[in-house]
Amino acid sequence: MTMKHVRALNKKARLFEENAEQRKKTRDEDVVALQAPSLGCSLIFDPGWETDSAGGVTGLCQPVEADLYGCYDDCWWPAQVPDQLTNHLTWSDSCASAERDWRKLDLIYPEGT
Amino acid sequence: MSQSPSIQSFVPLSRLLATPATLGEFPTSPHTSFAPVVFGDLTDRPGAELSEIRQFRIGGKSYVFVPAVTAIFGLDELGSEILELLRPPQAQSASATEAVQTPATRHVPLAEIIPALQPRHHRSDIVAAIKELRGIGALRLVGFREEGLNSPAPQLPPMPFPQRTLVLNVANDCNLGCSYCFAAQGDYGTPKRMMSEETARRSVDFLLSNSGNHKTVTVVFFGGEPLMNLKLIRGLVDYANDAGAKAGKEVEFTMTTNATYLTREVIDFLSEKRIGVSVSIDGPKQYHDLRRTYKSGNGSYDFIRPRVLDLLNRHKTRPIAARATLTHGVTAVQECFWHLKEMGFHEVGFAPVTSAAQDEFALTHDEMWQVMDEFRQLANLYVEKAIHNQHLGFSNVSNILSELHAGVVKAYPCGAGLGLLGVGADGDLYLCHRFSESREHRMGSVREGLDEAKQEQFLRQAHLSRKSGCQLCWVRHICSGGCHHEAYTRHGALHTPNAHYCEWIRTWIDIGLDCYARIMDPNPFFFEKFIDKRGA
User: Fold this and answer.
1) Which of A113, A110, A42, A90 is nearest to B10 (CA)?
2) Is the pTM of this model over 0.80?
3) Residue ranges per structural domain of chain B
């Protein structure tokens, strides 16, 4: 048994245990480099991530309404917003005010998924 | 500026979802479409925080339930200490009735965790335990790049979903007039009539041809009172067995009856054909006769008692279950349980009545909690017996143990509209038997087939991810918002979570976890012997 401090009780938990054993077996073959390839800033945008646990923004050091539009035009801030200069020109058309309308902003997913 | 073709191929999600080949607007809940994505926080003090867990102790042992994946683990002392360390000093463990179990965590740098535990534990053990706790989703590491453990992304079940069970309303009529009946004294408020043989055969054909890879399917004889249409049942059992044999499948039969028509001849037929029987009986006479009456108002207990005893005596091929309904004034669960066990029932299950809040027969808030106390006491007895490989036959505990044992992450509370459908007296298909004869919940018919568009619409709307208030609840993947019919009766909309019993159900599942761990640790074989065999 791979896990020493945690015991699986139900069937679902046993799957975790088996999975841990499997991972141990294949660990040597894992490619550890390049596990987090950078895909630039056009993959996804996740506004929920930029709010605090209560859904607010005022307590954050970079409130979402302040930095959101600082992202795509010069890309100085590594936030996850689509590239609006060349590929997604209409991305924020439904969002007149980021502070009010940010939930209307779209997600960008790879075609074919 | 050059444009990469691969970047060009990214399109907005809304456009993807608009195509009919995908899942329409599903899902729209902000909790699911904006599922947390862990990028790896950029802190210079890597450490750990609690994930969503419910931790519990039994005797000296510590356990953790991980709601996102419905997994249950036992912890050793070190594992337990690590989780305690991540709880802010002033934060108490949440009580079972509270939805959110881990309201408070604190970020503890690894540089502090290890020294705090090192006097008693070896450093390599501490690191190994942290990794294991992370692996099961009990804590998350912050300051590292990791995938995180999120609830599985909500998705509709694969379609077409294979049918496993059909509940046939073979008699849209009943000789009793129980005041709490959800079928409006047996006819669902529609003209009294019997299912025809032709409709019943079509139903079996529909079930067999839509059952996918299932090797066993189940036909449930329901009503009204199904034995009012005994002739049909006799013929259908033979027909279904033949049709099943041709299709290479086994057909099982069960029936829910009020027991008034149980003659010896009927009982011998039920036994010979291996028809499982569930008797609606509420306990001793003083409780049963309160609401299980003839339409004249006279109680039915004295009439059914000898018939039930005959059934228990002569029907030897399948276990016989009692199904008791708890109503206003009827909360003496243990008294009813022992009465029914002494009659000879193998399993006894209790269901709080489905009601609108103002119904005369509705359980009051206080009564619901009296029921819980009684359940808890019986559950304790269940555990004592289970440890010694004895089966108490209290269905409510068996059901919750069976759910917890499998650990299935459920998006729907039950099989209604999925593998289970109700068939009305005329052959119309409904979400389940409780919605029989309700035009609004008709989903095609056994002749024209399942209305797949309507089924898909239902599955979208009833999906757990669409139920507001459920997203943060620690029992969400077990309860899934509760019975559709209960929600429809109580709140007027079947997609609404049954918010009136959230605290109650959380308490019940907490008792279930406690029972599960208390049985599983000393006697895991109990589950192989009694729980796994119960089937779906």
Assistant:
1) A110
2) no
3) 7-142, 165-520
